[in-house]
Specification:
- This protein folds into two domains: 95 residues, no CATH class; 151 residues, DNA integrity scanning protein, DisA, N-terminal domain (YojJ-like (1).
- Helix 3 packs antiparallel against helix 4 and helix 6 packs antiparallel against helix 10.
- It has ten helices and seven strands.
- A seven-stranded mixed β-sheet has the order 2-4-3-1-5-6-7, sandwiched between helices.
- By secondary structure, the protein is α+β, with helices and mostly antiparallel strands.
């Protein structure tokens, strides 16, 4: 019973011990939440039973049982990995949704979104194909999404270019982007009634100004007549943007968007 005596004669508990116990407790709690209601519960009970037998064999000096457990435990771990691969995958996905990892993923996602938008706008401008792309920020655009045709497709520049081709049934309206997905196409937007706007602004530019008057969205407009790229925010229009300037503006605006919304079902 010497090991019991040694256990009771531990030094005073320090803040490091408290931190250690807290971290382990959180990990155990999260693990129990993950396996609750799955077949992994029975496997966990079996593993806990084997671990208990191991310490019993050490405490009561049972060499045969101790040898058996030490030689079998490797195969048990391997079998558990094979049998519980789906639960292990689910646990890793859960860990990947931690706030810090999500922030890193969102930064990469923002860069990808900006690049796709810039390449699409540049391609459309080079062909003088008219387009209007509205990017949702903190305020939702569900009412405009419902006015168009739902797509819920991964945002890519070739899809955007295809949508705005003259032969496409979706080219006449606006495309609305939520996160890294195209929520809908052929969406109707409100036209601004501001009388002080320049008369050379067409319906696409007026629609972009109109939608940004009502919310915090960003609108990218490609002029069919001139091929110029414009960026509209808070009803202010910045015209004749070069692709590099558009990239810089989008990175600044999208990366600092407060309270980003997850893409909603169109």
């Amino acid at each position: 019973m010497d090991w019991i005596t040694e256990l009771l004669e531990r030094p005073p508990i320090t803040w490091r011990d408290v931190l250690d116990i807290t971290i382990v407790s959180i990990l155990v709690y999260e693990l129990l939440k993950l396996i609750r209601g799955t077949r992994a519960v029975q496997m966990a009970i079996a593993i806990a039973f084997i671990v208990g037998l191991f310490y019993v064999s050490r405490g009561f000096q049972l060499p045969t049982l101790n040898w058996l457990i030490l030689n079998v435990v490797g195969y048990v771990v391997f079998a558990a990995i094979v049998l519980m691969q789906a639960d292990i995958r689910r646990a890793l996905v859960h860990i990947g949704r931690a706030p810090l990892i999500r922030r890193l993923e969102r930064a990469q996602q923002d860069d990808d979104v900006v690049e796709e938008l810039v390449v699409a706008a540049s391609t459309l401008a080079s062909k003088r194909t008219g387009a209007i792309i509205v990017i949702e920020r903190a305020i939702g655009l569900r009412n405009y999404i419902e006015s168009g045709i739902p797509l819920d497709a991964k945002l890519t520049y070739d899809l955007l270019v295809s949508i705005f081709q003259l032969g496409s049934p979706l080219h006449d309206g606006a495309v609305i982007v939520q996160g890294d997905r195209i929520a809908a196409g052929a969406c109707f937007l409100p036209l601004t009634v501001n009388p002080r706007l320049s008369r050379d602004l067409g319906s696409r530019h007026r629609a972009a100004i109109g939608v940004t008057e009502e919310n915090d969205s960003i609108a990218i407009v490609v002029s069919e007549e001139t091929g110029y790229i414009s960026l509209v925010l808070n009803a202010d229009i910045d015209r004749r943007l070069e692709p590099d300037a558009l990239r810089v503006r989008l990175r600044e605006l999208i990366s600092r968007t407060p309270g980003k919304r997850a893409p909603a079902d169109a």
